[in-house]
Amino acid sequence: MFDFFLAMLWIAPVGIMIHELGHGLAAISLKQTQAVVRIGSGKKLLSIVIGTVHIQIHAVFFFGGTTDSIRNTPFSKREEAWISVGGPVANLMLFSGLYIFLPGGHNGAIQLLMLFNLYLACFNLIPFKVNGKISDGYRVMQAIFPGLFK
Asked: Are 113 and 98 spatial neighbours (Cβ–Cβ below 8 Å)?
């Protein structure tokens, strides 16, 4: 039972934050004007501004996230693919870093954090579209095969 609460209140939000910041960092590398990172849903609890990145934490902070990147000139499909890959890459980097630099520390909360980040990376790279929402993998496929993925 404790593991469930640990996952919901600490591990999921950290993994989601890393994922969304990965999108934001990819957008920054493409000279975005502003990035808005939203963690969770519901009432906004906290808003942090770091340079051109606006981070908003919402009441149900363990339930997903989004990143909106804004630039004066629209992003090309290739640039959108780069931004989309940024989230899963950030999750894979955290997973790999913990795996490599904490040998033997793969139990309890660290193991859950590692596995959740691996899950986020893999799941988000699967191309799917549900109720108008598209995955990172779908966005990448739109850039590679624009005729097949609309």
From this structure: yes
pTM of the entire structure?
0.89
Query: Would you tell me how many other CB atoms lie within 10 Å of the CB of residue 46?
Result: 10
Let me know the angle formed at the C-alpha of 149 by 91 and 82, rounded to the nearest 5 degrees.
Answer: 35
Domain ranges of the chain: 2-144
Q: Helix or strand or coil: residue 146?
A: coil
User: Are 9 and 1 a contacting pair, CB within 8 Å?
Assistant: no
pLDDT attached to residue 62: 76
How many C-alpha atoms does 7 have within 13 Å on its Cβ side? 11
Residue 105 is inside which H or E element, if any? Answer: none
Per-residue exposure over 64-74, b if at least 16 CB sit within 10 Å of its own CB, e if not = bbebebeeeee
Mean pLDDT on 132-147: 91
pLDDT beyond 70 at 105: no
Of 88, 118, 78, 104, nearest to 23 by C-alpha is 88
Task: Give the whole-angstrom CA distance, residue 83 versus residue 81.
Answer: 5
Note whether 38 and 67 are within 8 A (CB): yes
